[in-house]
Amino acid sequence: MLISMLQTTKAKPNPSGKDRSRFFTPQQQLAGEWIDIQNTGSLPISLNNLEVYHLAYKMTGTEWEKVIVLSGMLPAGKIVRIHSGREIPLLQLLEIDRIGAEYHIFTGKNYVWNNDQVDKPSIFNSQLKKWEDQTWYDKYPPEGIVLKRDNGKLVPL
Question: Partner of 39 for a Cys bridge, out of 21, 74, 109, 129, CB 3.0 to 4.6 A?
Fold first, then answer.
């Protein structure tokens, strides 16, 4: 089991609403899909050389797929929320998607986290070539519900 001062502590992998629209998915809905990464230590942590991955299901099997490359510093005890979709003003986010994190970044990608398969939000250190943190959640997470880390697994609050 990995023990890291940087952990995925919460996730909302299945925002309310229809995932795939024939024409348009509102950016507010895309941004409603997110994970929280928290510095659980007592000192600032550099996010440089850290990458967030998830488990992608392909025709040939599963593979790790990069979600975003991180950078900057995360102060002790603080949380960065990583939203799907392109960046939008924070005031356009629903309250549930805005509160609880000091920093917000956006992947620029539509719907990252799996709903119909298990997913494993993971933080990889590209410089040290090692996983800093890994967690997972069951397939079909409840729509619009925040998951919280419990012994390495993300479960409904």
Answer: 74
Tell me the C-alpha distance between 124 and 147, whole Å: 21
Q: How far, CA to CA in Å, does 30 sit from each of 69, 151, 157? A: 19, 28, 21
Q: Which residues contact residue 155 at a Cβ distance below 8 angstroms, ignoring those fewer than 6 apart?
A: 137, 147, 148
Burial 70-91 (b: 16+ CB within 10 A, else e): beeebeeeebbbbbbbeebeee
Closest by CA to 35, choosing from 124, 101, 89, 110, is: 101
Radius of gyration of the chain (CA): 15
For 111-134, write each residue's pLDDT tens digit.
899 999 999 999 999 999 999 999
